Automatic annotation (TrEMBL):
This is Putative proline/betaine transporter. It is a multi-pass membrane protein. It is found in: Cell membrane. It comes from Sphaerisporangium siamense. The chain crosses the membrane at residues 31-52, 64-82, 88-112, 133-152, 164-183, 215-232, 252-269, 281-300, 306-330, 342-363, 375-393.
């Protein structure tokens, strides 16, 4: 939760600090610059996926999780103390970029290490349920950020928030990440990893290349899902305030309420996948996102009340749940233990860099060009590509992740 709070805090508070780091201009142009820095972090995620995915396969999931949260704490602290454009010109923006690069490295390894750990540590018939808590914690991180944003909106003036109040969440994130470091030091390593510790080839790119088809599958099935996820989560509040015309406070409230319900849906859908398989949920997402994105985003642009915005946002997030609730275990189930973390990390991070990280930037670019609806079709098209993959890929629910599972020596929960 803390790791992803730090990652998403940038997006949540960009509307307040964008003017502090870039020259004065129209609000959309400043947000576009801030979104560009946000996207930079995503382009570092493949590097983090490669380095930290390899590290997780060679040194263990526990070691990788401790390292990622340390890096995140440092990056949050950098943003908290970054000087403004008025003080040092563009040097403040350079500090932002460095911090986002460090965050990109951290999250690039965090996703795979946590997905692998959750999946390997769970009984086979509970993997969907257990791994769905990755998006529970990711979403909880966003909720903490939005909750703090609402608190600050009600306790500080708008001028104070723009001047210095936006720094508070990054101080909170730096301290929280430091605490989590000590928590993660007490984790137990997974049995599946311990079985493969003697394999010296584990975590190498050469070994990953023996699983090129699985790596390509991870990229393709992530493409539409990550784009839809970032569209209806991190970009949602900006879209509602910058395009629909809701106040920042109302847009934040809609995002908070929608994400709260979305968070509760994850374990329910994950448990369902343990019964019916992962593919049915992925296909549900693919069909819903392909056919529903254009009408949903068009309707959201025209909302005038919190109730209408919340209802439409929930419809979108129910659709997205088909992807978010199962994608962590699906990816982990595609690879053998000795290359599982790297196999999840690198192709997932590449897909995120190309589609998830650029979602906000592409959306604002279309808006700035006067063709905002073009973004709706872009999201729908990416979802259609992923849908084709969901329909043709194999079911992964019954994959054996350890020797004990392959030998049938695993006690299943009732």
């Amino acid at each position: 939760m803390v790791e992803w709070y730090d990652w998403f805090a940038y997006a949540s508070f960009a509307t307040y600090f964008a003017a502090s780091f870039f020259p004065k201009g129209n609000a959309t142009a400043q947000l576009l610059n801030a979104a560009g820095v946000f996207a930079v972090g995503f382009f570092m995620r493949p590097v983090g996926g490669w380095l930290l995915g390899r590290y997780a396969d060679r040194k263990g999931r526990k070691a990788a999780l401790a390292l990622t949260v340390t890096m995140m704490s440092l990056s949050a602290l950098l943003i908290a103390v970054a000087p403004t454009y008025a003080q040092v010109g563009y040097f403040g923006a350079v500090v932002l970029v460095v911090a986002r690069l460090l965050q990109g490295l951290s999250v690039g390894g965090e996703y795979a290490a946590s997905a692998t750990y959750l999946t390997e540590a769970s009984p086979p018939r509970r993997r969907g349920f257990s791994s769905s808590f990755q998006y529970v914690s990711m979403t909880a991180g966003q909720l903490v950020g939005l909750g703090l944003q609402m608190l600050l909106q009600r306790t500080l003036s708008d001028a104070a928030l723009h001047a210095w109040g936006w720094r508070i969440p990054f101080v909170v994130g730096a301290v929280g990440a430091a605490v989590v470091f000590y928590i993660r030091r007490g984790l137990l390593e997974t049995e599946a990893y311990e079985e493969e510790r003697v394999d010296e080839r584990r975590g190498t790119v050469r070994l990953l290349l023996e699983h090129k088809r699985e790596a390509a599958l991870v990229m393709a099935l992530t493409m539409g899902g990550t784009l839809a996820y970032y569209t209806y989560t991190t970009y949602l509040t900006k879209y509602l305030s910058n395009s629909a015309g809701l106040s920042k406070a109302d847009a934040t409230l809609v995002g908070f309420l929608a994400l709260s319900i979305f968070c509760l849906l994850q374990p329910l859908a994950g448990a369902l996948s343990d019964r019916i398989g992962r593919r049915p949920l992925l296909i549900m997402f693919g069909v819903g996102a392909t056919l529903g994105t254009v009408p949903l985003l068009t309707a959201l642009r025209g909302v005038t009340t919190v109730g209408a915005a919340l209802a439409l946002s929930l419809v979108a997030l129910v659709i997205v749940t088909g992807y978010t609730s199962v994608n962590a275990c699906v990816k982990a189930e595609l690879f053998p233990t000795r290359v599982r973390a790297l196999g999840v990390a690198l192709p997932y991070a590449l897909a995120n860099a190309l589609f998830g990280g650029t979602a906000e930037y592409v959306a604002l670019w279309f808006k700035n060009a006067g063709a905002e609806s073009g973004f709706y079709w872009y999201v729908a098209g990416c979802a259609a590509v992923s849908l084709a993959v969901y329909v043709t890929m194999r079911e992964t629910r019954d994959a054996a992740l350890s020797r004990a599972e392959r030998d049938g020596d695993v006690t299943q929960p009732a």
